[in-house]
Design goal:
With about 150 residues, the protein is α+β, with helices and mostly antiparallel strands. Helices cover about 35% and strands about 25% of the residues. Strands 1, 2, 3, 4, 5, 6, 7 and 8 form an eight-stranded antiparallel sheet that branches. Helix 2 runs antiparallel to helix 3 and helix 2 packs across helix 4. The longest helix has 18 residues.
Amino acid sequence: MTDEFERRHGFAPGANEVRLADHADQAAARALAQVSIVPAGLGTFYDSIGDVTWSDVGNGYFIDPAADVLLRFKQYDAVDVGADQKDDGLVIGSNGGGLSYVAGPSGAIYRTRTVSLDEPELDRVADDLRQLLELLERSLTQFVANGEPGIL
């Protein structure tokens, strides 16, 4: 993906990696798991994966470290999600263009329509974290093949 990046864009590529969790990430994952609204798969994910950073795929795709998700929750509380927006969700990442990904308590993943998290308008983009990761993988594959960043 980055072989021709600098020649094509005139600057060096940024970070593009799936970083394995270290001890600090795993400790943050355990602390995050204590939050009552954390979907089951998120704790398992963070026990193995520290974060996902694909800064050069479109505007970028990011799944934040557990410590960042926990800090954001402590500072700003949960985000209203669901059909009636009465469920609480956690911001777990972004698309690099200012839109956030929010994990609902059922595990469904939503994307904001605007950059604001105050009374956000949300679209459901995946049934769970696994499906979101599969969509991200397709976006990466599509980007490498034809330069299009995908639908996320």
